[in-house]
Amino acid sequence: MYSQDNWVSLKEPEDLPGSIGDDLRFVKQRSPLWFENRNGFRLTGSKIFEGLGLDSLKNLQKHHDKVIRKKDVQENISEIVQERMDHGTKSEIHAIATLTSKVLPVYYPDMKYFEEGAFHIKHDGKPFILVSPDGSIGQLEVGTAHEQTVPVLSCEFKCPFPNENTIPVHYTIPT
């Protein structure tokens, strides 16, 4: 069993007590409930670049067709891009472990890392943008009517794919 005092993980939606499962912040990412909620939004954090037209016109049109016109648009992700995304997903746990075991104890000893579900932004009362950060660094507010986290920093981990153009890491001074 894994245990880390400064790392708070989310539970599966069916394991959440009472109405807390209604708050997307506490819904575990990649769970069926998270995907179901994600589909109701015009923009997500991962598609905001295309959705705002900051990528190419072709990708903006594809996003518009899928989200506004409800067309069945297939996303063609190349094998190499998929491999890199899978690497990032698998390596995220190592980034969190480094943060909670090395960085937080030294720089933020009174803080914890909280895994996050999703946050939504509405426009004209309708769901508009859904963002799902990897987590947040904050404090647990204890002694109030109900314990709650007070986020101070948002966390989004990027785990670069290894390639042949990297500088070797030296654990000793080269001679």
TrEMBL record:
Coiled-coil stretches noted in the UniProt entry, renumbered to this chain: none
Gene Ontology process terms (BP): DNA repair
One of the Pfam families matching this protein, by short name: YqaJ
Domain YqaJ viral recombinase, first and last residues per copy: 34-162
Gene3D superfamilies per record: 3.90.320.10
Stated name of the protein: YqaJ viral recombinase domain-containing protein
Source organism phylogeny: Eukaryota, Metazoa, Spiralia, Lophotrochozoa, Mollusca
